[in-house]
Write a structure and sequence with these properties.
Layout lengths: L6 E9 L9 E6 L4 E8 L4 H18 L7 H21 L8 E2 L1 E7 L2 E7 L3 E6 L2 E4 L6 H7 L5 H6 L19 E6 L5 E5 L1 H4 L4 H8 L5 H14 L6 E9 L1
Antiparallel strand pairs: 1-11, 2-3, 3-4, 3-5, 5-6, 6-9, 7-8, 7-10, 10-11
Helix pairs in contact: 1-2
């Protein structure tokens, strides 16, 4: 493993989109602590907004206050469990919030070691050497059908069931996130996003935008603008993290 020390910079942007009355996405990050989180809430009334905000707040609170005695991955899994319980308990106390939940995608960075966690269909990508790779795997009904060979990618895009997710924070008493471990290299660009981006833009289109030499804030704005131009049917959130020597 190279001894080059990496530093991380980040930017994020969330947008209501062109069709939704409110924004149920949420994000939070701390480059100082190496923690980056995006959540996409679901539920009637304001339940989705409450669920995503609860999840982001709980993840950020627990992970920025961690003592460092255990691994950041273990702490992140425990933080996700705590966020899940906070949402589940809140929903149990209120009929109006019954069934609320949220997706979660998070990036954890410790020098060259990077982990992605996800629950649901918010995604984590890495752009390396101008090539975009999806790291996380959607917890969705159509993704399961694709893996079993019962549906093609093109059929999945058109499927009326493409919004059905099979795992979320807060809808059950417990949940297990998937964890992906990576080794970062100088120049790597990581993208965390809600499905409001990926439903409107193909990976090829996202890649073409991220290849541009521009500040992270500008790239976020370009992604959101492109998703809105393509229809903006859902809330759109993107969080970019760049690794630099």
């Amino acid at each position: 493993m190279s001894t080059v020390v990496l530093h991380y910079s980040a930017a994020a942007l969330t947008d209501r989109g062109r069709k939704r009355a409110s924004n149920e996405d949420a994000f939070g990050y701390s480059a100082e602590h190496g923690i980056y989180v995006v959540c996409d809430g679901m539920g009637g009334a304001a339940a989705g907004e409450i669920a995503s905000s609860l999840a982001v707040d709980e993840m950020m609170r627990l992970l920025t206050q961690r003592a460092g005695d255990s691994s950041i991955v273990t702490d992140a899994e425990q933080a996700a469990a705590s966020a899940n319980q906070a949402i589940f308990s809140r929903a149990e106390r209120s009929q109006q919030l019954n069934g609320m939940g949220t997706t979660l995608v998070a990036l954890l960075a410790e020098e060259r070691r990077v982990w992605m966690l996800n629950v649901g269909d918010s995604r984590g990508y890495r752009l390396r050497n101008a090539r975009l790779e999806q790291i996380t795997i959607d917890h969705s009904l159509v993704e399961e059908q694709i893996r079993m060979g019962r549906m093609s990618q093109s059929e999945a895009v058109r499927s009326p069931l493409r919004n059905v997710i099979t795992r979320a924070l807060g809808t059950q008493n417990s949940v297990t996130p998937d964890v992906f471990e990576l080794e970062a290299e100088p120049g790597d660009l990581f993208l965390l996003c809600s499905d409001g981006l990926t439903r409107e833009l193909s990976d090829t289109r996202i890649e073409s935008i991220l290849r541009e030499s521009a500040p992270l804030e500008e790239l976020c704005a370009q992604l959101v603008a492109a998703a809105n131009q393509a229809g903006g049917h859902d809330n759109i959130t993107c969080l970019l993290v760049r690794a630099q020597a």
